[in-house]
Design brief:
The complex is a heterodimer of chains A (about 120) and B (about 220).
Chain A lengths: L1 E8 L3 H13 L2 E6 L2 H10 L4 E5 L7 H11 L4 E7 L3 H9 L4 E5 L3 H14 L4
Chain B lengths: L2 H41 L8 H30 L6 E4 H18 L3 E5 L6 E4 L1 H18 L5 E9 L2 E9 L5 H9 L2 H10 L4 E6 L4 E6 L5
Classes of the chains: A alpha/beta (about 120), B alpha+beta (about 220).
């Protein structure tokens, strides 16, 4: 079991539950939310090390959630999920301080590697 | 291009691009679900599961088809976004590759192969992405409609002096290239191609030596 605390945020429930199950099978502690506001409340109660955040969500969109994370939880690393061909969102996210961005559909090994890098980058030596 | 037509195209592109995003979300769910099935299968490797190999093979097929769908959706998305701006910076290498992928299915139905030979470095210019793609596709279509089955069309990108160029070259069992070019020139499609290209400052030339066409972007702005 990895000693990581990861929060997945994506409005596609089937996507987020399946991805969470796959990560748990690999020993990664993961919580999930399908709503930006709810995700921010979860961060207040138990701040994760890494948030994997979808850009396009109804209500509070990914970039708005990102802005709030940067303001209220600057230590949390964010990996942004964008659609294929939507590199603009990824670049915009990088400008706003995301750790990195990945295109959907994901490669799970690539996601885990990014989470590992994000967690390690936050470890104070 | 008329202003109303341009607005219609932007509308069409916006709706199509939106749908490709949804398609990608669906493909992402299928991909993760098949990935989870694969994970569960690998956990049950030591347990008796009579259909393990058949099940495993089907999961692989699903994943391959998802990948195919992702690539198609990405192409369609990119195509739809080409209506975003009237004029845009275009790399002719990317455009030739994109057009080949978009046209492959149509050419295959005529038993014509399509390939790309990009320039060694980027060949960038500012032009109308929609009109240029429409012109090149229409030209390709009028070519594969006249070419004998089994022929090949190669799109190559180069610079002739300072001018960016796309060459469209035919190979295969072409008995008489000049007769073939006459047949292509007699179609209405080729008139349409010229009507689109002229206002963009793009010259279309018959290239009898290589058997095909050359499109020269004379004095193109980068």
């Amino acid at each position: 079991m990895q000693d990581w605390n990861v929060l997945l945020v994506d409005d596609e429930e089937e996507f987020v539950t399946t991805l969470a199950e796959r990560l748990r099978l690999r020993g990664i502690a993961v919580r999930m939310s399908t709503d930006g506001e709810e995700a921010l409340r979860m961060m207040e109660i138990d701040p994760p090390q890494v948030v994997v955040l979808d850009v396009l969500m109804p209500g509070l969109g990914g970039l708005e959630v990102l802005k709030r994370i940067k303001a209220d939880f600057p230590r949390i690393k964010v990996i942004l999920l964008t659609g294929q061909g939507s590199t603009w969102d990824g670049i915009q996210g990088m400008r706003m301080g995301v750790f990195d961005y990945l295109m959907k559909p994901l490669n799970i090994d690539e996601l885990i590697e990014k989470i590992r890098e994000a967690v390690n980058s936050g470890v104070e030596t | 291009m008329k202003e109303t037509t341009a607005k219609e195209l932007v509308f069409f592109g916006k709706i199509t691009a939106g749908f490709t995003h949804e398609m990608k979300n669906i493909l992402a769910i299928i991909k993760e679900s098949s990935g989870l099935m694969e994970d569960l299968l690998s956990l049950s490797k030591d347990a008796p599961f009579p259909h393990f190999d058949r099940f495993s093979h089907r999961v692989t097929v699903i994943q391959q088809q998802v990948q195919r769908g992702v690539e198609l959706a990405a192409r369609l998305n990119r195509f739809a976004h080409s209506t975003d701006e009237r004029l845009a910076r275009i790399d002719l290498n990317d455009l030739a590759e994109q057009l080949t992928k978009l046209s492959e299915r149509f050419a295959r139905l005529k038993d014509i192969g399509l390939s790309v030979r990009p320039a060694e470095s980027s060949v960038v210019l500012i032009t109308s992405p929609v009109e240029l793609q429409m012109a090149v596709f229409t030209l390709l279509e009028s070519c594969w409609n006249q070419l004998p089955a089994g022929s090949e069309i190669e799109l190559s990108v180069e610079r002739r002096g300072q001018d960016p160029c796309i060459n469209i070259c035919f190979t295969g069992e072409i008995a008489d290239c000049s007769k073939l070019m006459q047949k292509i020139e007699a179609t209405d499609a080729i008139k349409t191609v010229r009507e689109i290209l002229d206002p963009l400052g793009i010259e279309i030339m018959q290239e009898n030596e290589m058997c095909g066409y050359g499109l020269a972007f004379v004095g193109a702005k980068e």
